[in-house]
Amino acid sequence: MVTDDVGIASSPDTVDVTVADATVALQANAGADQTVAPGATVTLDGSGSTGTNPTYKWAQTAGTPVQLAGDDTATPTFTAPTAADISAAVLDTLTFQLTVTDAGGSNTDTVDVIVDDSVGRSSGGGGGGGGCFINSMF
């Protein structure tokens, strides 16, 4: 019940208050850098990104061009270039940019994928054999 400054009472009224869900801060997270072997299937990981119903868009910004499958998802894939495509011990560094967008705007992050010819190789060891063979025919 509310009264005015003269002390006259007025009829009660109600107020509805609706609290909206708090929005999640928008933050792109393109994941950790990776080192992969030539020809490997690589999955990028933007699933650590935050936002309210975010959309994803990946783009390659450096390195030997590759074809991204699912560039509008949190986890696109591609095949790393092979030694036939490029040459050097560390073949290439591919850079990808993730743009995450929601109703509040957009945010970007990048990730590097290093294609390294030595990944997956064992460090040798002896070649076995060797030894010596003596053939003496008298």
Amino- and carboxy-terminal Cα gap: 128 Å
Give me the side-by-side strand order of the main sheet: 1-6-5-3
Structural class: mainly beta
Query: Order of helices and strands, N to C?
Result: EEEEEE
Instruction: Indicate the radius of gyration in whole angstroms.
Output: 31 Å
Overall number of strands? 6
Q: What is the overall shape? A: rod-shaped
The number of distinct helices, counting runs of at least 4 residues, comes to 0
- Mean pLDDT, all residues: 82
User: What kind of sheet is the major sheet?
Assistant: 4 strands, mixed
> Unreliable stretches, pLDDT < 50, 5 or more residues?
125-134
The percentage helix is under 10%
Beta-strand content? 25-35%
List the helices and strands and how they pair.
Blueprint: E1 34-36, E2 41-43, E3 55-62, E4 77-79, E5 90-102, E6 105-116
Parallel strand pairs: 1-6
Antiparallel strand pairs: 2-4, 3-5, 5-6
